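Problem 12. The chain below contains 155 residues. Write out its predicted structure in token notation.
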Amino acid sequence: MSSASSSEQRSDDRALDQIGPALSRLRRRAPASGKDLSRNLVLNVIADAPGETTVGGLAAEMGVAQPVASRTVAACIEDGLLRRAASQSDGRRTVLELTEHGEAERNRFAAEQRTAFLEITTAWTPEERIQFARLLARYGTDATAWSRRQATSRD
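Solution.
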């Protein structure tokens, strides 16, 4: 291996080692209050779920304890963002659904995040913005699938 390719490998390794810290910074820099961040996460998890979502399922998807998810859900219900409903597949279960107000808030969060993205990437070319947006969305989709496979293999 030549020194140039070895140097490139070290540079690539350093770049890959920065993924975790970069994702952490992205989450901390989202244009919302801490309360909005939690609610946005809850609304997105419920909206993106392939089926019905319970508080327990929400907690698992968010990676938090069930009491934490329960408190966040209670606040979202109180603010009219979510409602509890009977499961269509098992009437004994209670599932969570977005309200119209919840969907509107989810859209508001998305618009704020798009605006912030455009301001943050103002020096990027339009092609760079779109490429990054597509790759980040793909990463999110793949991370969800990976997480579900991990949960299934633990069960």
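Discussion. The beta strands are 82-86, 94-98. Students who got a different answer should revisit the alignment rule from Section 12.3.
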